[in-house]
Amino acid sequence: MNRKINTGIAYLTAIWCSLCLFSCNTGGEKNNDMEITWSLLTTEGLQDSLARGVSASYAALSGNRLIVAGGANFPGKPGYEGGTKAFYNEIMLLNTLENRWTVAGHLPHPSAYGVSVPLSDGVLWMGGNNGEQSFSSCNRVILTKEGEVRLSPLPDLPVAMDNFAGAAIGDLVFAGVGNANGRPSNALYAINLKTDSVWTELPAFPGTPRVQPVIAAVEDEGKIYVYLLGGFYGGDATQKPAMATTVLRYDSSTEEWTKAADQIDPATQRPFSLGGATAMPVNNRYILCLGGVHHDIFLDAITTQYNIAHNPALSAEEKGKQHQEFSTRYMTQPVAYYRFNPECRVFDTQTGRWTTIDSTANAARAGATLVSDGSVFYAIQGELKPGVRSPETWKGEIK
After folding, report:
1. How far is residue 30's CA from residue 12's CA, in Å, rounded to a whole number?
2. I want to staple 318 with a disulfide (CB 3.0 to 4.6 A). Which of 87, 98, 102, 314 is the partner?
3. What is the predicted pLDDT for the residue at 176?
4. Quick check: 377 and 398 in contact, CB under 8 A?
5. In angstroms, rounded to a whole number, what is the distance separating the alpha carbons of residues 21 and 392?
6. How many CA within 13 A on the CB side of residue 276?
7. For the CA atoms of 92, 97, 100, 104, what is the dihedral angle to 10 degrees?
8. Beta strand 100-106 with 90-95: parallel, antiparallel or unpaired?
C-alpha cells in the first residue's frame, strides 16, 4: 500500500478537515414529490488501512462501475494524541460480479481533498493535497476493458487547489473557491474541455472566502447558472471564523453574482451548515444536499481554537496547552455529540425554497464523496465524527 503520512497536523487544521460531505440542512417542509431508496454496498476487498474508510476521496462512475481513489484517514492514533494522517493513492473498483472491491490502478501520488465532476464522456479528477502540498493536476478517468483505471492528463488548474468545489454542464467545467495556493479564496474558474486549452478566471464571488463549499450548475432557457452554497472561513488577524449561510448565484451570461437565498431552516428559522457537504443537480432545477457538520457545534469549535491562537495574553506554551486540552475534550465525544446533519435537503433554484426529502443516518457524515448518474447517486465513506471514518458506501435512487 502506497500512502503519504503527514506528521505535522495542526490542531485547527485537524478540525477543519473533519468536513467534506454534502449537506444542505433544513428541517422544513416534507417534499412528497421526491424520495430516496437506499441500499448499502459491500466493503469486501477493502484491505489494511483502507478498511477503516477514508474521507475526501475521488470518485467516478463508468457505466455502472463505481471507482473510488485516494482519500485520507488516521490509521493509528487519533490526531490529538499525536497520530499521523495518511493519504492514499490506490484506485479501487467495485467488481459487481464478485461483489468486492479490487485495486484497479494508482494515482500519481497519494492525495485527498480534490474534486470529481462528470463530463459528457467521462469524469474529471482535479486538485487535492497530501498534507504537505496542494496540486493543480487535472485528469480524465478511463476504465479499460481489462478493468484497469488509467488517467489522461487535461489542462492543469491555474493554481493549486484543495478543499474546493467543482461542477460541470457537459464539458464546461467550473472550479474554485476553497483553498488556492494554500489560502482561502473567492476565485472561480471555467474551461470548456472541448474547445479550450487554458482555464479562464471568472469574476470573484462577493463576501468572505469559503473553504469546503459546494457548487452546482444548472441550465435554464439557454443560460448557465452556478450556485455556491455553504462552506466556512477559519478567520484571520481581523476577522473571526464564520459559517457561510448565503446561497449565491453566478449568471454566466451577465458575469454577475447575486444572492439566491439564505440557508435558513423553515421550521426553526435558524441557519444551517453546508460545511463538509456535497451536492448534485437533479432534473436541471433542484440541488440535492446531504449531510455535513452541525452549524453551531462546528462554529463553536473553530472559534474556540481561534480565540486561543489570537489571545495576546497567552504565551506560546500556554496556547499549546489550551489547544491540546480543547482538542482532547472535543475530539473524544461520542458520535451523537457532533450532530452531523442527517437531513437530505433539496434547494429549488426556481423558487429559492428548501425542502427535506429524507432524514437518515446514511447521510449523517462529513467528508464523504458524491458521484451520480441521473437519478442514481453514491455517497462514499466519509466521517462519522472528527477523525473517525466509515468504510460504508450508500447507493441512493431518487424517485
Report:
1. 36
2. 314
3. 97
4. yes
5. 13
6. 30
7. -20
8. antiparallel
Residue 259's H or E segment, with its range, is: strand 256-262
Type of residue numbered 357: I
pLDDT at 215: 97
Task: Copy the grid coordinates of residue 214.
Answer: 459546494
What is the reported pLDDT for 374? 86
Contact 86, 5 (CB under 8 A): yes
Q: Is 12 in a helix, a strand, or coil? A: helix
Q: What is the dihedral of CA 55, 57, 60, 64, to 10 degrees?
A: -40
DSSP assignments along 106-137, one per residue = E-SS--BS-EEEEETTEEEEE--B-SS-BB--
226 class by beta-carbon count within 10 Å (0-12 exposed, 13-18 middle, 19+ buried)? buried
Q: Is 107 exposed, middle or buried (0-12, 13-18, 19+ CB in 10 A)?
A: buried
- Domain span at 248: 3-398
Encoded amino acid at 135, one letter: F
User: In 3D, which of 155, 169, 167, 157 has the Cα closest to residue 120?
Assistant: 169
The SS3 call for residue 94 is strand
Residue with cell 450556485: 227
Q: Could you give the CA distance from residue 9 to residue 203 in angstroms, rounded to a whole number? A: 33
User: Grid coordinates in use for 264?
Assistant: 435558513
* The total number of structural domains that make up the chain: 1
Q: Which residues is 116 bridged to in the sheet? A: 125
What is the model's pTM?
Answer: 0.91
Rounded CA gap, 103 and 347, in Å? 37
**Residue for cell digits 495518511?**
86
Which CATH number does the domain housing residue 211 bear?
A: 2.120.10.80
Hey, which residues does 86 pair with through a beta bridge?
5, 73
Residue 264 DSSP class: B
d(CA 142, CA 121): 10
**H helices within the chain, ranges in order?**
11-16, 295-309, 316-331, 335-338
